[in-house]
User: Fold this.
Amino acid sequence: MAQRPRAGSAGHRHQADQAGLGRKGPAGLGREGPATVSDSAGRRGSHRPGDPGGPGSTGGPGSTGGAGEPDDPERAYRVAREIALRKLETRDRTRAELADALRARATPETVVEAVLDRLGDVGLVDDTRFAISWVESRQRTRRLAGRALTAELRRHGVADAVAASAVGGIDPAAEEHAAFQLARERVARSSGLAQEVLTRRIVGQLSRRGYDGALSFRAVRAALDQSGRPASDHTDGSDETDDVGGRASAGEEGTG
Assistant:
């Protein structure tokens, strides 16, 4: 699998150029000229006022700054490529995220597919790599469990099978350890609450991070036992965990 250049570096453009991304447009277009927005903008600047796409023009996709110009598919490809590479400079992106960004700029669908296919060919877009990296990062920084991670990956447009494979690599013992650690931290920081209220609150917090009800209650009871505070008799957990799929990590996710 091709290694992705570090986000924010010039590596994306170098790798794309080395692989010929800048020279290959949509099928049937042949060779392109310089593949940068600035060069394209320079050519636009040579239009006389009132020309389509030139200074003073009030119509056409070119006036919006987007990639959609039906009469110039090669330029549409170059601009779309630049948009995608700029997105990739901040963080890794899924194919669906890049497609949404390009469509928002009125990029023709054939150009969207051509650019994303080429980015995939050179290893700059890889949803499997994205999913694995996302799971590892969010486990480490937010200690999310599998259900919350699956929900996040879906929001990024990762296919269910790819998300399931990435989440399936989570070590159950590590997930259980994280749940117990989170419960201990929450109990240590809580005081003055009735035990049933405290138990329900912490179980709810664990639920929103994707931990199932049974594990959440075991973790909270163990944490309360270790702290010398009696655990609540409330042990069912169904009222705290029913909507994890919809709420999981809704307030947790931080995107670049």
